[in-house]
Amino acid sequence: MKKAFFTPIFLALALLPAAAQNNLDIISNMETQNKAVGSSTDAQRLPDAQLAMSVSYYPVTAGDVYTLAFAAGANPITYSIPVDSTYKIRIANLGVINCAGLTYLQLKNQVESLVLKNYPMGGVQFVLSAPSTFLVSVTGEVQKTVEKDAWALTRLSTIITQNFTSYSSRRTVTIKSANGRTRNYDLFKAERDGDLTQDPFLRPGDKIIVNRLERQVQISGAVERPGTYELLAGENLKELVEKYGGGLAPLADTSRIELYRKVSGNEDAGNKSYLSKSSIENNAALECYDSVFIASFQELTPVVFVEGAISTAANTSSTSTTPEGSTRLAAKFNIGEDYAYFVRRNKNLLIAESDLSNAYVNRAGNIISLNLAEMLYDASYRANVEMKPNDTLIIPFRQYFVSVAGAVANPGRFPYIPDRDYEYYVGLAGGFTESNARNSIELRDINGKRYSKNSPITPESTIIAKRNSFFYNWNKYTPTITTILSILVSALSIFVTARAL
Fold first, then answer.
1. CA-to-CA distance for 150 and 445, rounded, in angstroms?
2. Is there a contact between 400 and 414 (Cβ–Cβ < 8 Å)?
3. Span 313-327, pLDDT tens digits
4. What confidence tens digit (pLDDT) does each residue in 124-137 have?
5. Which residues make beta-bridge pairs with 186?
6. Dihedral over alpha carbons 245, 246, 247, 250 (to 10 degrees)
7. Are 290 and 262 contacting, i.e. CB atoms less than 8 angstroms apart?
8. Are 429 and 454 in contact (CB under 8 A)?
9. Are 382 and 396 in contact, with CB atoms under 8 Å apart?
């Protein structure tokens, strides 16, 4: 008896893999076509039967293919049931079901009830084999009118946003359905508030119309969510700050609100006006393309200037820099802060060439000496020097030199510059003289050790230009030698003549 009871169920279950296999090619072809059309984005899911059956709200859609399997006595029966645009499907020879407006789960319950009514021991199974794909059109304020692939779990936003222009409205997107019903949707509410009723699933025959924006404004500065927003009718400065901007930041300075109006009447050039906190409370009117900036008290934080042998990699603003000269930075500090704490906090400003022992502060012409080495490395240091706005902290270069001697125009000592070769220093010395042949030099480091002229020049090196030109030495000493020889020859001639007499 138990065997007779379970046999139909086993037969029906055995039919499902085979029935599903018959539809694998259909699903594969649909996915391939969807990719080939190029209408899918990363955010747009491809048709997925398992995903569709995993949610309770998947709507039965024209083009869906379902598989029904059950057992009539000892005979296994399987049907592939497509849904056409009439939404009426025939369940074997048992009846017809109108599935318009039904979800997959609702249709599944009706099908199973109908089959079990006629075959109580039929072990019925009803699954979605291949979800439908369909075309929707996108027109209006878009880059171009297109038709795109969609399926029943494709939302409006995944279809249209990549086709927006600078003038497309996110607040009023119209969908005209196949039955002629027209409804507007607000994608901003869906994105900001999570109201997914404003980002609906698409249906076959939908025509999407993107409207043109009416008023778009920008807010920046001391608000929690700066950005560019499209305002609805009746919304102005108060809504822009509190609703769209997320409210004022803790350090917002409402006495310094700037309104830049790009378009004013018939004038092409914009103008700037200044508002106060009362302008927010009174909901000052805004026009399209207005830009609002709310300053922060943090911008009024006092600064000192740091100049000299410092790095530009610190989190400060550089005002000038040269490869060989000093750098000038503006650095913020807190009232009451002393230089010892400031230097320790900004030690990444210092470089290898910084002369820490001879730093000083220029305060309105008064010089205050500082030993930064003690501040950084001496735990017993206690002499606090309080910082004042607009101080200039000077950190001199710890100067190194390179000596140039020998066959150069102006031998001497010259400031060391990193990453320079010997030709740079020879040039500072006026270049080679004629007594040097083929730029012949000798390099010695600070310890007197010779090294290759292709190596980088090190601090306190000595560059010796050799006097090795044969013709230069010949031309230099030839006149003297000739004169001496002439004198000797003359003296010898006189001596010989005198003896002959």
1. 75
2. no
3. 654 444 333 334 567
4. 999 999 999 999 99
5. none
6. -110
7. yes
8. no
9. no
